[in-house]
Amino acid sequence: xxxxxxxxxxxxxxxxxxxxxxxxxxxxxxxxxxxxxxxxxxxxxxxxxxxxxxxxxxxxxxxxxxxxxxxxxxxxxxxxxxxxxxxxxxxxxxxxxxxxxxxxxxxxxxxxxxxxxxxxxxxxxxxxxxxxxxxxxxxxxxxxxxxxxxxxxxxxxxxxxxxxxxxxxxxxxxxxxxxxxxxxxxxxxxxxxxxxxxxxxxxxxxxxxxxxxxxxxxxxxxxxxxxxxxxxxxxxxxxxxxxxxxxxxxxxxxxxxxxxxx
Length: 262
Ligand code: ATP
Prior knowledge:
Strand order of the largest sheet: 6-7-8-3-9-10
Strand content: 15-25%
Mean pLDDT: 90
Radius of gyration: 20 Å
Oligomer: single chain
CATH topology of the domain at 1-65 and 171-256: Rossmann fold
Bound molecules: adenosine-5'-triphosphate
Order of helices and strands: EEEHEEHEHHHEHEEEHH
CATH architecture of the domain at 1-65 and 171-256: 3-Layer(aba) Sandwich
């Protein structure tokens, strides 16, 4: 399997506003080389928005972002052939079989040697034995795995997976992470969003977002050592408490007039 050696993602001052909501508040990250980056944070933290801005699916309000050195807004069909995106919502056709869905995406991405690529993608997610089942006949976990096969059939170098393990039982979740590590070891750069904080230990680095701000971008072990805690959930809770305290201190410094200009 061939792989680009210089996979990368970078952002500089990436900001996205939806009316009065600031979904991304000036994000600066530099990610070089194959690895798994966990995108972690509470509901509404900005995880999906960040993925969509990076992929050029929604325009940033200001700032810059690039994938493999190409600005997100300039990604063309050739660039996109190297990218994979599994959205949070179901993105498969319910009236098609598992195999027909994966074949559809293989056609869309103009994958060479299509049949063997489809076989490989189905084997990768462990669905060869259900390839002729219609989507409506599958369990939720199997539907997620079909989506993953559709995302990976083009053998992308940079892969964005938005909550791929949501709703899966612990065994399936663990199997999914094994597969993500296989991709990483094969040279891919994966960005995986999750709100299961405990899953972050599967990542090489964790980008912890809250209200569009980066609270930490660290290796999981560094997070544990920094906060001297037993598990990552505690580390993230500590980060949230520190952020609360910093915001309260800022509000106090601004004085009574700071929040009463309505
Ligand atoms: P979740 O874990 O719930 O999926 P998330 O971290 O992915 O959340 P986003 O979906 O990126 O968060 O949303 C960030 C903020 O931007 C939220 O306040 C959300 O309501 C807002 N937002 C996202 N998309 C839109 C939109 N199209 N229009 C208006 N507001 C939006």
